[in-house]
């Protein structure tokens, strides 16, 4: 049976790597644990450094022909892949929800956004040009955007479908071939999408996936001499390791790391809207979002009202298994649940206004659930105010002046997102300029999938940009050609 006859979303009991257009097993496997129930969802091949070698060699061989395809051909193939992802979005969403624990509605949205990335970059590549530079009348000077070659992608578990597509789609569109290492906990949708890519007509070897553990397959990919550009999405600690490995062989890297993003709520804000959006944003994916607005900085005159309103929203939240589509699913693992609980226990001077404990929806005592949690009045210097918790935990702090608000917002090592809540237009723009972050929202937070919006951080939130047309620049290098006329 050829790969074209196989149901790409039916991965069987063992999820295997996908190299050169076919599934490839490994000598060892590990269990894929369902965070909703604590039970096994099946086994995953523990990819080895030999598999990484094979995947890189396959991508290298495929790239020789892939880079000579026309933008129109690549555009057609990527748009066809987007169609296939859309047609299988329910199956992909269920795999995603089981692996990660996220509520089904959110997983369906992730599948939709995944398709959107392939379509966006499929369309964009048709109108991505170099420049003509009018240097001198006797010189014809122009630039070409050259693909790096083979791109590596090491991904986190929180938005597996979205992170996969936002890295791979612009890479393939610009003529690179890709090797992906999905997160240990959430490998299945990456393998399924790579299978769909072959069915869409992408040549074998253009899109490879090696499943496995970070310290094994991930480290082998980061250090591989055949990787020409590396995209990493994950923690700041591992990002630094990966960037060091890439620096050893002078390979460019994009780092999309953690965050501790702040809402700045001023006295003239629409307090109810700010409360509703801030509560919704920290509950999305159980707070396991790099861009989660995990700190609310609020003017002292509206502080009490805002805290009460957020607690009111938290009180209405349903908690349960991802596939049952509650408001709040489990965290990705029991380990993550312990980590979040540890932070909440260290709240110090902060007052736990709502939640603060593990949750046990009926019949799911082994799941990794945590209640929505609101902690008011935390010490800005404390770990809970400084470090990324990655759970449904919101901290609030008061301020009296705009300067104090901006200083608090910029007072962590991270700089990923921010939101300004005010009706004063001048203040909105002034504060948006002063908040150190890759994206700043005014009177809202997030804008759908954000496929079109350049995204990335400053400082310990990373460097380089994904998403938007800017990602096409990250996936290429400029070649300048000078012709004497
Ligand atoms: P992680 O750093 O533990 O793992 C990320 C990836 O790195 C996984 O695929 C893992 O297998 C791999 N890995 C682990 N050790 C490795 C090693 N030694 N060498 C090479 N690869 C290795 O992160 P996580 O816990 O999976 O994800 C959560 C983090 O990701 C959070 O900090 C979150 O903010 C961040 N994140 C950032 C963005 C963004 O765009 N800025 C998006 C999503 C998640």
Plain-language structure description:
With 485 residues, this protein is an alpha/beta fold. Helices cover 38% and strands 21% of the residues. It has a seven-stranded mixed beta sheet, sandwiched between helices. Strands 10-9-8-11-12-22 form a six-stranded mixed beta sheet, with helices on both faces. The longest helix is centred in the N-terminal third of the chain and has 22 residues, at 104-125. The radius of gyration is 23 Å and the shape is globular. α6 links the parallel β9 and β10. The protein binds nicotinamide-adenine-dinucleotide.
Indicate the low-confidence ranges by residue numbers: none
Let me know the largest β-sheet. Answer: 7 strands, mixed
If strands are numbered along the chain, what order do they take across the biggest sheet? 15-16-17-14-13-19-20
**DSSP helix fraction:** 25-40%
The averaged pLDDT comes out at 95
The total beta strand count reads 23
Radius of gyration: 23 Å
Structural class of the secondary elements?
A: alpha/beta
Alpha plus pi helix count: 15
Distance between the termini: 57 Å
Shape: globular
Q: Which cofactors or ions or other ligands sit in this model?
A: nicotinamide-adenine-dinucleotide
How large a portion of the residues is in β-strands, by DSSP E? 15-25%
């Amino acid at each position: 049976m050829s790969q074209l006859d196989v149901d790409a979303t039916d991965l069987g009991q063992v999820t295997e790597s996908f190299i050169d257009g076919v599934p490839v097993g490994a000598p060892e496997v590990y269990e894929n644990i369902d965070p909703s129930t604590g039970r096994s969802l099946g086994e995953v091949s523990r990819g080895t450094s030999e598999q990484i070698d094979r995947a890189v060699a396959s991508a290298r061989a495929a790239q020789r022909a892939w880079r000579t395809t026309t933008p129109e051909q690549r555009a057609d193939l990527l748009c066809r892949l987007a169609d296939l992802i859309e047609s299988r979005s329910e199956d992909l969403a269920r795999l995603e929800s089981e692996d990660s624990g996220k509520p089904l509605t959110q997983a369906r949205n992730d599948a939709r956004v995944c398709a959107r990335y392939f379509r966006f970059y499929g369309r964009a590549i048709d109108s991505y040009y170099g420049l003509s530079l009018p240097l001198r009348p006797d010189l014809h000077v122009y630039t070409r955007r050259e693909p790096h070659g083979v791109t590596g992608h090491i991904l986190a578990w929180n938005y597996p479908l979205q992170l996969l597509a936002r890295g791979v789609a612009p890479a393939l569109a610009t003529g690179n071939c890709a090797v992906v290492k999905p997160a240990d906990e959430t490998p299945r949708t990456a393998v399924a999408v790579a299978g769909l890519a072959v069915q869409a007509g992408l040549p074998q070897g253009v899109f490879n996936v090696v499943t496995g553990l970070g310290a094994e397959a991930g480290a082998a990919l980061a250090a591989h001499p055949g990787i020409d550009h590396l995209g990493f999405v994950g923690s700041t600690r591992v990002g630094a390791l990966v960037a060091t490995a890439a620096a050893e062989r002078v390979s460019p890297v994009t780092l999309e790391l953690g965050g501790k993003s702040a809402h700045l709520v001023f006295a003239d804000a629409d307090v109810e809207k700010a409360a509703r959006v801030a509560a919704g944003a920290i509950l999305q994916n159980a707070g396991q979002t790099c861009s989660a607005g995990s700190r609310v900085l609020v003017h002292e005159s509206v502080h009490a009202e805002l805290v009460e309103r957020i607690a009111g929203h938290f009180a209405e939240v349903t908690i349960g298994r991802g596939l049952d589509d509650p408001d709040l699913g489990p965290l990705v693992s029991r380990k993550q649940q312990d980590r979040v609980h540890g932070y909440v226990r260290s709240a110090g001077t902060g007052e736990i206004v709502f939640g603060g404990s593990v949750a046990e929806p009926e019949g799911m005592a082994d799941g990794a659930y945590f209640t929505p949690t609101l902690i008011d009045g935390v010490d800005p210097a404390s770990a809970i105010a400084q470090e990324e918790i990655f759970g449904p935990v919101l901290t609030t702090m008061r301020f009296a002046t705009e300067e104090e608000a901006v200083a608090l917002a910029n007072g962590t090592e991270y700089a990923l997102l921010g939101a300004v809540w005010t009706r004063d237009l001048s203040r909105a723009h002034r504060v948006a300029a002063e908040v150190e972050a890759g994206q700043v929202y005014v009177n809202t937070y997030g804008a759908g999938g954000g496929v079109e919006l350049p995204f990335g951080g400053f400082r310990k939130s990373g460097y380089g940009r994904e998403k938007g047309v800017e990602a096409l620049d990250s996936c290429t290098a400029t070649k300048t050609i000078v012709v004497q006329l």
